Structure formats: C-alpha cells, structure tokens
C-alpha cells in the first residue's frame, strides 16, 4: 500500500528539469529564476518552458537566467537580454505590439473579411432575379422530337 501511495505522489508531482547543480543558494533568487523560467520557451522543444525541458539549450538558458539574476539584473532586464539575444520567440506569450501586432490582428481580420464576403454574396444571390431558361427554337424542337421518336 505504501508503494502505491508513493508512486501516486511521484506521478502527481510536476516534472522539473532543473538539476541540483543549477539551483541557487538564495531562495529568493531561485524563486525569481523559477518564475522567469516558466515564461521562457525552450527553443528546441517549442511549446515547453525551460523549467520543464530536459534539452541542453534549455539548461543553458536556465543557467543564463540565474547568472543574470546573481549579477543583479531585474526580471525585466533578464527578459530584455534574452529577447535581444534570441528574439521574441523565446517568450511563451509574445507581446502584442510592434511587428507582432500584425500577427495578432491578421487572423481576426481575415475572419471578418471572409464572413463579410460570404454575407454579401448570399445577399446578392438572394436578390438576383431567377433567370428563366430560353425557349427552344423551331430547329431545336424538331431535333428533340426526332430524338424522342427513336
């Protein structure tokens, strides 16, 4: 029974890739480093933060964050340093300003244009008069009678 409880506790614990040699001695700095790491994307694993990633690059980024914090940088300075070095892709939630504003607004704008175009098409189609088929000419009627006789 103890093994079952222990196994469930281990499975329920969040996966942390932070190695013991990375952990800072100062618990306040370590807490800041962990909080920053949760918002930074592993550049190898894509949508996984560096705190949970086992990739070598994620480890390097975790060490870099801790080095910057020990050097006295603020949280914003650490983030700015990483964005300058790796681009905004390193952020799990990029800012909605500047060049990224185009990406944030393009999807909803295209949806609005598509829905407007569909509504306009349906309205014009409904309002258009039904075109009656042209009557058959005398030659066409004679040809039809000939075909139907066979």
Automatic annotation (TrEMBL):
| Signal peptide residues on this chain, from the entry's feature table | 1-17
Domain (CcmH/CycL/Ccl2/NrfF N-terminal) spans 6-148
CDD domains, alphabetized: CcmH_N
Identify the keywords attached in UniProt to this record, alphabetized: Cytochrome c-type biogenesis, Heme, Iron, Membrane, Metal-binding, Signal, Transmembrane, Transmembrane helix
Give TM regions.
101-122
Task: State a single Pfam family of this protein.
Answer: CcmH
Query: What family, per the record?
Result: Belongs to the CcmH/CycL/Ccl2/NrfF family.
Q: What does this protein do?
A: Possible subunit of a heme lyase.
This chain belongs to the protein called Cytochrome c-type biogenesis protein
Identify the species of origin.
Answer: Albidovulum litorale
């Amino acid at each position: 029974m103890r093994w079952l409880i222990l196994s469930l506790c281990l499975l329920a614990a969040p996966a942390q890739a932070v190695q013991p040699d990375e952990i800072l001695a100062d618990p306040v700095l370590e807490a800041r480093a962990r909080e920053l790491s949760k918002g930074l994307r592993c550049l190898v694993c894509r949508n996984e933060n560096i705190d949970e990633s086992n990739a070598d690059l994620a480890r390097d980024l975790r060490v870099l964050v801790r080095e910057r914090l020990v050097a006295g940088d603020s949280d914003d300075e650490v983030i700015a340093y990483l964005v300058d070095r790796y681009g905004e892709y390193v952020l799990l939630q990029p800012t909605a300003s500047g060049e990224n504003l185009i990406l944030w607004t393009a999807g909803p704008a295209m949806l609005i244009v598509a829905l407007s175009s569909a509504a306009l098409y349906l309205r014009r189609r409904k309002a258009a008069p039904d075109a009656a088929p042209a009557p058959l000419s005398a030659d066409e009627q004679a040809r039809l009678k000939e075909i139907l006789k066979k």
